[in-house]
Amino acid sequence: MFSRRATSLAVLFVTTYGLLLGVSAFAGEDGVRAKETAAIQKPEPGSPGDTLTREDARMALLVYKLLDKNGKIKGADIKHGEKLFLQNCRPCHGGDGRRFNFSRYYEKPAFIGDRARDDMPTFWYQINFGDEERGMEAYIDEFPLQDLIDIAGFAQTLP
């Protein structure tokens, strides 16, 4: 009875000590399972292991998850995006997105639809983080992610 209790306490001690160190006591002899788990775990936001800035993380989401092979936004509700665009973007950009020309005076005109279709990373950055040079506000904290996806999807349909 005493040896069974001592064994249980020893296992509990080793397990607790391993957890405190971040090592699984049940990883096996070579620790392969612990290494695999550590490799796939995402670091906590703001932790020392989290090296992506907020901007980097949002841009990586666009590139790796939201764009299809043709540069179209995946998972956008176009009708909802249109509603949000008309409510929030129309005052500055116009209902068709052509009130503000992004090009220099000597270049071919480029409007929101052009930017969203031809240069989605720039468009995505600007709706998330704003554009101080042009006086555009950042919307990353104003809208849920899905709303920004919907707006971006709708913007790709504009002329």
Descriptive overview:
This protein has 159 residues and is mainly α. It folds into two domains: 2-40, no CATH class; 54-155, Cytochrome Bc1 Complex, Chain D, domain 2 (Orthogonal Bundle), CATH 1.10.760. It is 53% helix and 0% strand. Helix 3 (54-66) packs across helix 7, helix 4 (78-88) packs across helix 8 and helix 6 (112-118) packs across helix 7 (120-129). The N and C termini lie far apart (81 Å).
Structural key phrases:
159 residues, mainly alpha, Cytochrome Bc1 Complex, Chain D, domain 2, 2 domains, 53% helix, globular
Topology:
Blueprint: H1 2-21, H2 32-40, H3 54-66, H4 78-88, H5 90-93, H6 112-118, H7 120-129, H8 145-155
- CATH-derived architecture of the largest domain: Orthogonal Bundle
Rg, Cα atoms, Å = 25 Å
Q: What is the count of β-strands?
A: 0
| Mean residue pLDDT | 81
Give a quick rundown of the structure.
The protein has 159 residues and is an all-alpha fold. It contains eight helices and no strands. It starts with a helix and ends with a helix.
